[in-house]
Amino acid sequence: MDALQIILQVLLVLTSAFLILLILMHKGKGGGLSDMFGGGVSSAAGSSGVAERNLNRITVSFAVVWFVVVVLLGLITKVG
């Protein structure tokens, strides 16, 4: 159980970091964190609808993986 828990914790840290980066890359609707940190990059990449849709899909995929890892870690902690 210890090895599985360590693997899940590492996966949780990695997916959390990628989620933060992916969310900041989204095109902002107004002036916010996305404009402050990645405004130039997101406006160039976000100008095409395909890039924004792909970014949305990747973000949702990472969010689902993050959620599953959190649930698994909770179950392991409760059982162990």
From TrEMBL:
<keyword id="KW-1003">Cell membrane</keyword>
<feature type="transmembrane region" description="Helical">
    <location>
        <begin position="6"/>
        <end position="24"/>
    </location>
</feature>
<dbReference type="Pfam" id="PF03840">
    <property type="entry name" value="SecG"/>
</dbReference>
<keyword id="KW-1133">Transmembrane helix</keyword>
<keyword id="KW-0812">Transmembrane</keyword>
<keyword id="KW-0653">Protein transport</keyword>
<comment type="similarity">
    <text>Belongs to the SecG family.</text>
</comment>
<keyword id="KW-0472">Membrane</keyword>
<dbReference type="InterPro" id="IPR004692">
    <property type="entry name" value="SecG"/>
</dbReference>
<protein>
    <recommendedName>
        <fullName>Protein-export membrane protein SecG</fullName>
    </recommendedName>
</protein>
<keyword id="KW-0813">Transport</keyword>
<keyword id="KW-0811">Translocation</keyword>
<feature type="transmembrane region" description="Helical">
    <location>
        <begin position="58"/>
        <end position="77"/>
    </location>
</feature>
<comment type="function">
    <text>Involved in protein export. Participates in an early event of protein translocation.</text>
</comment>
